[in-house]
Write a structure and sequence with these properties.
Its EC number is 1.4.3.-. Its cofactor is Cu cation. It is an enzyme of class 1 (oxidoreductase). It comes from Linum tenue. The chain has 652 residues and is mainly beta. It folds into three domains: 83 residues, Nuclear Transport Factor 2, Chain: A (Roll), CATH 3.10.450; 107 residues, Roll (Nuclear Transport Factor 2, Chain: A), CATH 3.10.450.40; 384 residues, Beta-galactosidase, Chain A, domain 5 (Distorted Sandwich). Helix content is 9%, strand content 41%. The protein is built from seven helices and 33 strands. It has a 20-stranded antiparallel beta sheet that branches. A four-stranded antiparallel beta sheet has the order 1-2-3-4. It is globular, with a radius of gyration of 30 Å.
Length: 652
């Protein structure tokens, strides 16, 4: 895809960033060095030779030289010689690879490339190729028949790949495809279909043209992403946190949700709805979401360790283990804090100060952006990715779990857990890895210290109400399809989506990684204007499954981890994946046993159970305190809105 930039500016600013101006062997070429390359190559060829630079870059020094320089670096250390690697097209016919000594500005080598393929496109030849259709009579006639104006046409260059052609069939040709403006700068939303222009880049002329028929150009309505074209305000709220107690209702930007606390589950997000500007109403997404169980089995079979297979929520209370958050450390300065309460053994309420913090997050991320340089005036639009985060930390023994529920203006809910704290280590006789000859059930981290191998499986209860209670689970499987020989396409294969609707619980069990599958939860009774069922997509994070045998007693109790995804019909008694009574349980009241009923789940009020897993093989950097290891999942709109919800342009 061609992209013609004008200027690129990079600004780095922070009161705490220190920028070193000393040179490094891997520094990119400076402006002066590019000039040195240009001078050397131009001098190398005669004045009557046409040279096009398709690539100029640093020819990296040997790795050993760079490492040696870093190890012995002082202000007076000599850096390895700097050289440039160049790919050039000479006289539009041949490709050359050159090496230039940047210090001496001399050519060290010039080799003619005779293999297959060509260097990357230059912007200049793309600009020239893109202009050709508007001077081509058949193309202008095609526009006339479509009722399109040439002044609103912008064209783009596309590489065409290789489909077995030999000899002259592999010349430097591209396809030029065009789009239509007329009311929007979002040209890629308005393709002019049915017309194919083939251009020979070396000859810079059209060598093929085909108009296979008229296809309607998509409307411009609602596609313009410029800020000046948006409807104020964005959603019903402003970027300020409005915490209402004691009901714990939160409204921010286009989100409305309830935050609760449970001594077993910890934070519970309920009745999460998002405001739809087009419909001028809040629409439901998540009725209730929380951590149902946290299973942490250790792989140590020694007598003092074999039983260490923790069910942290069901045995210890994930909420009971809540740690008070430290302002300015656990949470940023703009955070709002909330307390929580739990009963003691006598039923007396006990306060947990600073149990939650809620804050707006902006870490320099981009929610969306695009630079369009093909328009008469360059258009660059960027939106900052500002989100609202609800954070809680549960310290269950040695581990601290940082729990974030993040609400994004794009309609996504991201759930992240960060594992930190301390490893659970085992003392040993070993002082060096070479002394270990028998099974140690872990890794030596320091003298006499073994970090035991273990897992973390976090199972979330997600009662999705996608635009209402009646939902279905679509397994969209991505499969390779072979192209029949009788078709006119030179392609041999492509992939397509095969959608299966899960009818019962057994249909919905998913082991991630076993196949390419898209997980979408839809309301089959609600459709977009173009006919798609409204839905939300579950985007998994860390994919891990249990490695214990099914007949291991530990795994029988934790059979709910056997699949990463389960779907059950809503049942108010089915909240805890490991059962209500977990201590010394026998695995007879778990998500796995409930699902054996194989109940119907199509067009029902359903609950999604998602298990996020980590296999933890400790390393020395985890000792003595473990840097945070994070993963999670995302609930992301999938045809829930008519268009990008953060882009609400006026529509005629």
């Amino acid at each position: 895809m061609s992209k013609i930039p004008t200027f690129l500016f990079f600004f780095f600013f922070s009161s705490t960033i220190s920028i070193s101006l000393s040179s490094h062997p891997l520094d990119p070429l400076s402006p002066a060095e590019f000039t040195s390359v240009q001078t050397a190559v131009r001098s190398h060829y005669s004045n009557h030779t046409s040279v096009a630079f398709h690539y100029i870059g640093l020819k990296e020094p040997p790795k050993s030289a760079v490492l040696s320089w870093l190890h012995h670096h002082t202000p007076s250390s000599a850096a390895p010689p700097r050289r440039a690697f160049i790919i050039a097209r000479v006289n539009h016919t041949t490709t050359h690879e050159l090496t230039v000594d940047l210090t001496q500005s001399t050519i060290l080598s010039d080799q003619l490339y005779t293999g297959s393929g060509y260097p990357l496109f230059t912007f200049e030849e793309q600009i020239a190729a893109n202009a050709l259709p508007l001077g081509h009579a058949p193309f202008l006639e095609s526009l006339r028949r479509r009722g399109l104006h040439g002044a609103e046409i912008l064209c783009q260059t596309y590489g065409i790949g290789w489909f077995g052609e030999q000899g002259k069939g592999c010349s430097r040709i591209v396809r030029v495809m065009c789009n239509y403006l007329d009311g929007t700068v979002n040209l890629f939303m308005r393709p002019v279909e049915g017309i194919a222009v083939t251009v020979d880049l070396d000859r810079m002329e059209i060598v093929g043209y085909r108009d296979r028929g008229i296809v309607p150009v998509p409307k411009a309505d609602g596609t313009d992403y410029r800020g000046s074209k948006q409807r104020p305000p964005f959603g019903p709220g402003v970027n300020a946190i409005n915490v209402v107690q004691p009901n714990n209702l939160n409204r921010w930007a286009n989100w409305d949700f309830h935050l609760g606390f449970d001594m077993r589950a910890g934070p519970i997000i309920s009745t999460a709805s998002i405001f739809d500007v087009d419909k001028q109403t809040f629409r439901r997404v998540l009725y209730r979401g929380f951590l149902s169980e946290l299973f942490v089995p250790y792989m140590d079979l020694t007598e003092e360790w074999y039983y260490r297979t923790f069910f942290d929520a069901g045995e210890f209370g994930y909420g009971l283990c809540t740690s008070s958050l430290l302002p300015g450390a656990d949470c940023p300065d703009n955070a709002v804090f909330m307390e929580a309460y739990f009963p003691d053994k006598d039923g007396n309420p006990q306060q947990l100060p600073n149990a939650f913090c809620i804050f707006e997050r902006y870490a320099g991320d981009v929610m969306w952006r695009h630079t369009e340089a093909a328009t008469p005036e360059v258009v660059t639009e960027v939106r900052r990715d500002v989100s609202l985060v609800v954070r809680m930390v549960s310290t269950v023994g040695n581990y601290d779990y940082i729990n974030d529920w993040e609400f994004k203006q794009s309609g996504s809910i991201k759930v992240t857990v960060g594992l930190t704290g301390l490893l659970e280590v085992r003392g040993a006789d070993y002082t060096h890895k070479d002394q270990i000859h028998d099974e140690s059930y872990g890794q030596i981290l320091s003298e006499n210290t073994i970090g035991s191998n273990h897992d973390h499986f976090l199972t979330y209860h997600l009662d999705l109400d996608v635009d209402g209670e009646s939902n279905s689970f679509l397994k969209s499987k991505l499969k390779t399809v072979r192209v029949p020989n009788r078709t006119t396409s030179p392609r041999k294969s492509y992939w397509r989506v095969f959608v299966e609707t899960a009818k019962t619980e057994s249909d919905a069990k998913i082991k991630l990684g076993s196949e390419q599958v898209d997980l979408i939860f839809v309301n089959p009774n609600k459709k977009t204007m173009v006919g798609n069922p409204v839905g939300y997509r579950l985007i998994p994070g860390s994919v891990a499954g249990p490695l214990l045998s099914d007949d291991d007693y530990v795994q029988i109790r934790a059979a709910f981890t056997e699949y990463n995804v389960w779907v059950t019909p809503y049942n108010e008694s089915e909240k805890w994946a490991g059962g209500v009574y977990v201590d010394r349980s026998r695995g007879d009241d778990t998500l796995a046993t409930w699902s054996m009923k194989d109940r119907e789940i199509e067009d029902r009020d359903i609950v999604v159970w998602y298990t996020l897993g980590f296999h933890h093989v400790p390393c020395q950097e985890d000792f003595p305190v473990m840097p945070t290891l994070s993963s999670g999942f995302e609930l992301r709109p999938a045809n829930f809105f008519e268009r990008n919800p953060v882009l609400k342009a006026y529509i005629s």
